[in-house]
Amino acid sequence: MTSTKIRPEKQEMVEQLKGKFKESQIVVLTNYRGEKGKPGLTVKEVSILREKIRDAGSEYKVIKNTLACKAIKETGDDKLSTYFAEPTAAIFGYKDPVATAKAIVDFKKEANKDRNHLPVVKAAYMKGKFLSAEELETLATLPSREVLLGQLAGVMNGPVQNFVGVLAAPMRDFVNVLNAIKRQKEEQG
Known about the structure:
By secondary structure, the protein is an alpha+beta fold. Helix content is about 55%, strand content about 15%. It has helices spanning about 10-25, 45-55, 65-75, 95-110, 135-140, 145-189, and strands spanning about 25-30, 60-65, 90-95, 120-125, 130. It has a five-stranded antiparallel sheet, sandwiched between helices. A hairpin with a 2-residue loop joins strand 4 (about 120-125) and strand 5 (about 130). Helix 1 (about 10-25) crosses helix 3, helix 2 (about 45-55) runs antiparallel to helix 4 (about 95-110) and helix 4 (about 95-110) crosses helix 5 (about 135-140). The longest helix has about 45 residues, at about 145-189. The radius of gyration is 28 Å and the shape is elongated. It starts with 7 loop residues before the first helix and ends with a helix. The mean pLDDT is about 85.
């Protein structure tokens, strides 16, 4: 029977992982090795992917399955545990799920066409819901959070501007009538 106690340094790693799972807006679990017998991502490719992920306000981390499963169970939501069967890299999207998805999809598009299936998305989990690889790609096509907020502000501002215009119309019309009368009197004059 194995002991459930783990060393303090491992417990610290579990606590860090638990924090990452809780803080993330989206978690994408990937297989970076690819199919058996075929080469996985190279060190250079992983570095490029890490940079893209970091630029999106996210983090790419290869994690040990046992520690990941323990951290997930301690968060109280262990739905992701089943995906830690093989070596797995987790992408933690802390700020904008769209930016994280775009970084992954862009990396795959820029990769060599024989290898653009890597990393293989095993699972994407956002706000308690699993996303398929296709849904993750659809998410990547959405505008960024800032653009969406700007569009929302514009939509919300439109009715207010129209209302102000309606309120100002009688005064504007009254001034136009007065100016017309003034011009008419000056012409008669």
